[in-house]
Every structure is written in structure tokens, then in C-alpha cells.
Design brief:
8 helices, Phage tail protein beta-alpha-beta fold, alpha+beta, seven-stranded mixed sheet, 3 domains, 19 strands
Amino acid sequence: MKVLPMPQATAASEWFSRIRSGELDASSEQEWAAFAADPSNEAALEQRDAAWELSAELADRPVIADLLADVDRLVARKAPAAASAPRTGTRRLWPLAAAASLAVLAVAAVLLQRTRASVEDYSTAVGEQRIVTLTDQSAVTLNTASSVRVIYSRGLRRVDLLRGEALFTVTKNPARPFEVHALKGVTTAVGTEFDVRLGTGAATVSVLEGAVRVAAASGSTPVAAGEVVDYGTDGRVSAPRPANVTRIRGWVAQRIVFSDEPLAEALADYNRYRTSPIVLADPALGSRHINGVFRIGDEQAFLGALEQGLQLKATRTDTQVVLAAK
């Protein structure tokens, strides 16, 4: 389906509508790639995405409800024609959907500006950590290779964890809950301290102080201090279990703590802070266990402990460190 020439704002809205609805077909992938490669187009798409996410806060505003009702009526009038001729009907409805999307997003943007909403992105490189103090004095401590998007307004405190791990120390405000969105789940707190970590297709929420509620497609689960839960893209939240609070307190203090940890798992955690990984020459070595507290970035001390405690030999190459049995 070809996108007809149109002003940039309308074009961005049409692409946004198609992506959100899952209607992007294989024949359009090349056009989409060319459109998104333009930095100005990318910025326009990001603005629409941010406004769309923020407009959830405004769903009960009469002006938004009226606009959405108008869209429903307009699309309904065009639907019979689309049903009788699916391809051309769909083609004709895309500009309509784009215009509707643009109108709703424009109103949402105006209202959000009035409520003084702000959107800020923060990130860390591999091996870097960073503390971000938010406008309400809540704090976000970013671990290595992590990224968040902060969305704040008078009625909303929201952080999207896009990558990595972050510790949230939340200033108490019952009238303005604090939400952390990761994968397809939401962790809601009023005033507490908790850690969220993204893995491969899963998120882990550990509570250090207070309590939170973790919600996903399967429902919501309360999580108390000292507990941890996981959820994946399937929307199922695990039952609470004891959290490894020592590990979290450790990385905040720039320490990695291992307590009877299998070597394979310990290396996976340690390599999060390195651009060149430490690998095992023989995967069977991964079943050996390690204990200790190591300063992040002190490679010599870590490798020395492995060589002495686990009888391993470290060999450095240009791209990695290889551990083998002595």
C-alpha cells in the first residue's frame, strides 16, 4: 500500500496509525525504512508516540471523548465501502485514520502542555552508573547500560524502563502514584524503594522498602519489602519470593556481590559492566560456585579470585578474557 505525498505532520500521523494498529505489511517495509531514516520524521514519530502514551492520562477529558466519538462515527460511515472493496477501502481509510490520530494527538499535546507535562530521556553506557533526581525529589539510579524515559505532569508520575536496570526511590504522594512501565507490565508505588531489571523477555521487580503493586495482563500482585516477582511478555506475574536485596544494595555501592553463585551466572552478571566479556573455555566450568564482593571495574581482583579460588587460568585476547582449568 503506497503512502500518498502529504505534509510531514500528516504523513507521520499515518505511519504512526499503521504501526500502532499492526497494519504495516511487507510491501511497505522499504517505504517505512526510508521515512523513519529521516531525522525530522523520526522526531515527529517520537512526538506522536509520547503524546499517545501521555494522552491516557486525559482519557476522561470531555474534549478527548468527543474527538474519539467523532472518529468512530466517521469511520463507521466509511466502513461499508471498505468492506465491499477491502484494498481500496483500506487505502481510503488510512488518510482518515491519520487525520483522526493527528487531531486527537494535537489536542492531547495542548492539554498536556497546560498541565506542564515533561518528557525526559536518561541513559548510561556500559560500566556507567547515574543518579537522576526528579522534580518531586524522587530519584532514579541507573545501573550499567540502562535507559529510562520520565513522563511527569501534575497528575502523572511515570517512568518507562527501556533497557537495563534502575532503582527507584519514590517520594510519597498518595494523590499522585508513581508508575514504572517495563515490557507489558506496570509497577505502581506511592512512596517506596524498589528495583526493576529487564532481562531477555522478562522483568524482575524487587522491593527494598514499603510495598508496590505489579500489574500485567494476568492481573495484579502486591509485593512487600524484601520480596521479588517476575513477569514476562505472556503477562503472567510470579508469586512473591525472597528478594536478593544484598545484590541490589551492592551495585548501588558499585560492588558486585556473589553468594554461592554458579560461575556461569556470576559471569553473566559481571559482563554487564564490561565491553569485552569474560568467557569459559569449557561450559562445564560454569557449575562451579563463587563467593565474594568485588568492586565494579576492578578486573584484576576478580580474575585473581577466580584463579586462586576456583583453580582457573585467565588468558586475555583482543576481544575477551578466556577462563580455563589449570
